[in-house]
Amino acid sequence: MDFLEILKAIILGIVEGITEWLPISSTGHMILVDEFLKLNVSSGFKEMFLVVIQLGAILAVVGLYFDKLIPFSFKRGFSIEKDKMSMWFKIIVACIPAAIVGVIWDDELNALFYNYQTVSIMLILFGILFILIENYNKGKRPRITTISEITYQTALIIGIFQLVAAVFPGTSRSGSTILGALLIGVSRTVAAEFTFFLAVPIMLGASVLKVFKFGFSFTDSEIVILTTGMIVAFVMSIVAIKFLVNYIKKHDFKVFGWYRIVLGAVVLLYFAIRNVLFL
């Protein structure tokens, strides 16, 4: 087993774990990282790997929010907590648009939009929107300040924003859902938490879909690379989630908007220069 490939998996796990939860687009970062750090694996495994390492990120959410996510209680015999079940029904409603589009048109959408031009444009566009919406909301009190106040209608609207991220890489799944939630009056903390919860079924479903498409025949080195990436993504996700939750208690999302704009410009500039040099 080549240690260099394990090191690459560690770096990719770090990037995935951090950028999956901050509203800055994991795809945009992965495209840049892939330019300088290419895994020596088959294209099929690489495509699957970049999605399935998200399972580590999902486990981080489940671990951090276990009490809020699990609707079953065994304190006084088995019981189901209705408020948590209601939350899960709303999460399912929010996931339906992206799930339908992802299952039916996943390959077609990747072929059409998985390129640096789309990623750069969406990074910049949603960066601008973050700044504009935060300025618009300045001084206003959010209408929704707890998860339980999210209605099915609100959940569906957030789900439609999540659909935008499923179609256009670079939008950022967390970025689009947080932006949509802020736009309809959800507080920053609740918007972030609901985004974390939405990720569990969406990312789990995407990972299962990719594994089935790839098949279950892994070499020993592929298992090591995949496991390493997932473990690192899990650890870094815990760090990123805790950072984001603490940060937005005192700050808004505008810094992420500016970061997205700069990153989008860097991606465009880098590929423009590369294309000129290698014509």
Notes on the protein architecture:
Its main location: membrane. It catalyses: di-trans,octa-cis-undecaprenyl diphosphate + H2O = di-trans,octa-cis-undecaprenyl phosphate + phosphate + H(+). Catalyzes the dephosphorylation of undecaprenyl diphosphate (UPP). Confers resistance to bacitracin. It is a multi-pass membrane protein. The chain has one domain. The protein starts with a helix and ends with a helix. With 279 residues, it is mainly alpha-helical. Helix 3 packs antiparallel against helix 10, helix 4 packs across helix 10 and helix 8 runs antiparallel to helix 9. The model has no long low-confidence stretch (mean pLDDT 91). 76% of the residues lie in helices and 1% in strands. The protein is globular. The protein has a two-stranded antiparallel ribbon. The longest helix is centred in the middle third of the chain and has 32 residues.
**Major beta sheet summary:** 2 strands, antiparallel
Uncertain spans = none
Helix-residue proportion: over 70%
List the total number of helices.
12
Rg, alpha carbons: 19 Å
Brief sketch in words of this structure:
This is Undecaprenyl-diphosphatase. With 279 residues, the protein is mostly helical.
What's the helix and strand layout?
Blueprint: H1 3-19, H2 26-36, H3 43-52, H4 54-64, H5 66-69, E1 72-73, E2 79-80, H6 82-113, H7 116-137, H8 152-167, H9 173-183, H10 188-214, H11 220-247, H12 254-277
Antiparallel strand pairs: 1-2
Helix pairs in contact: 1-2, 1-11, 3-10, 4-10, 4-11, 6-8, 6-10, 7-9, 7-12, 8-9, 9-10
Characteristic key phrases:
single chain, 279 residues, mainly alpha, two-stranded antiparallel sheet, globular
